[in-house]
Write a structure and sequence with these properties.
Structural class: mainly alpha
Order of helices and strands: EEEHHHHHEEHHHHHHHHHEEEHHHH
Low-confidence stretches: none
Helix content: 40-55%
Largest sheet: 3 strands, antiparallel
Strand content: 5-15%
Distance between the termini: 50 Å
């Protein structure tokens, strides 16, 4: 009689759902997973150590690169921690702008998650639909910061600058010697510029008007699709108490039926001034986590619309008037030597922060993202510790996958919405 034994195999690090930097050692009994050991560290960039070697205001750009799908949300936690240490409150307009861009970032994150997760499981069209919406929101990032991804837009004391009064226009690129091609290009440019005639707020308002129909399209393709349900229902089930014990947060926790959202429970910025609901799952499986994230996109759209209405009606400053934190305007800097020196000193040496410690957490698209800063009175942190939501979720991969088939590992990695920049830090 032949001996039957488990065998060990590598899953990754080339697997697309694992971003090329996760190696999983699987112990298999035939096609059933008996044990799973995730190996991380293949992307390690020493972000915490780098932040401890630079002035506070020079590390904001590093935060963008942690979770490179939720850039401004990472910045928000970092600048909140600095503001707690200094004891400064940004102007209310800046807080509304932060809330608006946090929610734009949430939609950006969930669109990429949904497209990539569906692609991993075998649905291709959703990926193309989601990236169509992402392009519009990337344009919003670019309009305020000049960068499509790594914005460095939030600053201690407010935001870099106010919202622009005009959106960039698409231009005609077809050669004029080909009238047919030129006419086609003109028509295409007109379509692309349809909502770009006004300000950034006009553009965002037009997006919020058409986005619910886009979410309906995603749901038409997936929510009642029998193949999608076969791949996600009862896959990676986590009970509510177990989810809390494992340190889950965000959609992973709410998918298990726990109504916990820092925007409601510990409001920051202007979240206590806007109206929205917290979607919660029932069964704690991959399908429930999908439904929670889809509903979060609808709620984010609702919050953005409220912010647009408020920002239209309330002009005002977007940066604190504390000269130690805020640089002088470009116009002043060009004509006044003192302002030039002030600008140079601020961006090379930064500012000293009183000794103390602070922890600031936000409701990141993936869960609770926290920054713990210790200051010893110098111009750079004595210690910067990043609390990444994905790390706790990845730690539970073994428990979530035990007893499932090999193909289900892809669905479980997808439902966790992992980005390794924040896990490996």
């Amino acid at each position: 009689m032949s001996e039957i034994r488990n065998y060990t195999m590598n899953f990754g690090p080339q697997h697309p759902a694992a971003h090329g930097v996760l190696r999983i050692i699987l112990e298999m009994d035939g096609e059933v997973i008996e044990r799973c050991d995730p190996h991380i560290g293949l992307l390690h960039r020493a972000t915490e150590k780098l932040a401890e070697s630079k002035p506070y205001n020079q590390s904001i750009g590093y935060m963008d690169r942690l979770d490179y799908v939720s850039m401004m949300c990472n910045e928000h936690a970092y600048v909140l921690a600095i503001e707690k240490l200094i004891g400064v409150n940004p102007p209310l307009r800046a807080q509304y702008i932060r809330v608006m861009f946090d929610e734009i970032t949430r939609i950006l994150n969930h669109c990429l998650w949904l497209g990539a997760h569906a692609l991993d499981i075998g649905a291709m069209t959703v990926f193309l639909y989601c990236f169509r919406e992402r392009e519009d929101l990337m344009d919003c990032y670019e309009a305020v910061s000049g960068a499509r991804m790594h914005a460095t837009y939030y600053r201690p004391g407010g935001v870099y600058r106010d919202l622009p009064d005009a959106m960039p226009q698409h231009i005609i690129t077809a050669a004029r010697d080909n009238p047919k091609s030129h006419a086609k290009s003109q028509s295409r440019a007109r379509d692309l510029n349809l909502h770009r005639d006004g300000s950034l707020l006009d553009f965002i308002e037009a997006f919020t008007a058409r986005f619910p129909a886009c979410v309906d399209e995603y749901e038409t393709l997936l929510s009642d699709n029998r193949i999608w349900k076969q791949r996600t229902v009862d896959i990676g089930v986590v009970a509510p108490e177990r989810a809390k014990a494992l340190g889950f947060s965000g959609p992973m926790l709410r998918g298990s039926g726990v109504e916990w959202d820092l925007r409601k429970k510990q409001p920051y910025a202007a979240y206590d001034r806007v109206d929205f609901d917290i979607p919660v799952g029932r069964n704690g499986d991959s399908y429930d986590r999908y439904l929670v994230r889809v509903e979060e996109m609808r709620q984010s759209n609702r919050i953005i619309r409220q912010c647009v209405d408020w920002l239209r009606a309330h002009p005002g400053p977007v940066m604190t008037d504390d000269g130690k934190l805020a640089p002088p305007s470009r116009e002043t800097m060009k004509g006044d030597m003192e302002s030039l020196i002030h600008h140079f000193k601020l961006f090379t040496e930064g500012y000293c922060i009183p000794a103390g410690e602070a922890y600031a957490a936000i409701e990141h698209p993936k869960g609770e993202f926290g920054i713990y800063l210790i200051s010893d009175g110098a111009n750079k942190p004595y210690r910067c510790k990043i609390r990444a939501p994905g790390f706790a979720h990845l730690s539970a991969l073994g428990e979530m996958s035990k007893g499932h088939m090999l193909a289900d590992m892809v669905a479980i990695i997808g439902t966790q919405d992992i980005v390794f920049g924040e896990i490996d830090r």
